[in-house]
Amino acid sequence: MSDNEGRKNLRMPDDDEVFAVVTNMLGANRVKVRCMDGVERTARIPGKMQKRIWIREDDVVLVEPWDWQDEKADITWRYEKQEADQLRDEGHIQE
């Protein structure tokens, strides 16, 4: 049995994406996120995710900050709880 027994290969951020933790639900498909680059942003839940993926406070997500407005972002991915725990264990996410 290796240490990697329970490890899944998780989706890692692309060049323009950052890890973020949902801190607040704002309504109207928007959430407040605390990004790992130290910026607090308002993130939009895109239409294709709204009905299929349920996003709650303290979820770990990937966001893509907007080029023209750095305080806003789009959510591109949500991690399951055990995936988020794995990311924390590996040091990708600091609380």
From TrEMBL:
Residues 6-80 form the S1-like domain. InterPro entries: NA-bd_OB-fold (IPR012340), RNA-binding_domain_S1_IF1 (IPR006196), TIF_eIF-1A (IPR001253), TIF_eIF-1A_CS (IPR018104). One of its GO terms (molecular function) is translation initiation factor activity. The keyword Heme does not apply. Pfam families: eIF-1a. The keyword Lipoprotein does not apply. It comes from the Archaea. Keywords: Initiation factor, Protein biosynthesis. Transmembrane segments: none annotated. CDD domains: S1_IF1A (cd05793). Belongs to the eIF-1A family. NCBIfam families: eIF-1A, PRK04012.1-1, PRK04012.1-2, PRK04012.1-3, PRK04012.1-5. Seems to be required for maximal rate of protein biosynthesis. Enhances ribosome dissociation into subunits and stabilizes the binding of the initiator Met-tRNA(I) to 40 S ribosomal subunits. This is Translation initiation factor 1A. The lineage of its organism: Archaea, Methanobacteriati, Methanobacteriota, Stenosarchaea group, Halobacteria. The gene is eif1A.
